[in-house]
Amino acid sequence: MKNILIGLMVVLGVQTAFSNGPVTGDPTAKEIIKKADEKLNGKTSKGEMKMTIVRPGWQREMTMKSWSLGNDFALILVTGPARDKGTAFLKRGNEIWNWQPTIDRVVKLPPSMMAQSWMGSDFTNDDLVKQSSILEDYDHTLIGSETIDGRPCYKIQLIPKPDAPVVWGKVISWIDKQEYMQMKTEFYDEDGYLVNTILGKDVKTLGGKLLPAKMEVIPADEPENRTLIENLWIEFDDPINESFFSVQNMKRVR
After folding, report:
1. Distances (CA, A) of 143 to 132, 157, 164, 172, 174
2. Which superfamily does 2-8+19-252 belong to?
3. Which end of the chain, C or N, has fewer beta carbons within 10 A?
């Protein structure tokens, strides 16, 4: 969920050759991922974003608010359009709920739904709620360096650990070497086929941090489709009580 807040990235250049491990003096792959994750998240975060779903011949927009506390608590509220307004998603630990006000119903999402489309977009439920942990559920390997959109990046491969609750067979992430921003991420299925690419764009200062203001997901099998999330504003580290992230509050938060 948090990666879409900041948050959950077409290559313009490739400069350096791949290597089998980190160059002397470089941080380890896990240290790089940890720094990138910490930069995205903060102790707490809250913000507002716009999501644009693009299809051949049409597009639609949604607006959302979001809140997070550490790695275990997050909430997304849909604020527009009118037909979707009030729909909410809540994460507490490994449990995830969806509030649908039009039918007055709370649904607990099973793990089998994590790979499904979120609100008709090219993002999956797992992209938004991040049931899996990029730090604890994957083994990390630094496989090289590339330049993405003019920024030198570490290229890191993430392979899920046995029995980890993940939906991907492999993830490759490009992390900016200076600012530890996630500039590009590729998601592969268990058979090794590319499913989605997420691009970080429009780097600017948000909440006192230099971050991509936009994230674009492009499905590999339908490259004419795409979903763009633009962060309108973000604030980090303002106090948010754990009790805010409750099923009851999910129904009434505005």
Report:
1. 22, 7, 22, 9, 10
2. Lipoprotein localisation LolA/LolB/LppX (2.50.20.10)
3. C
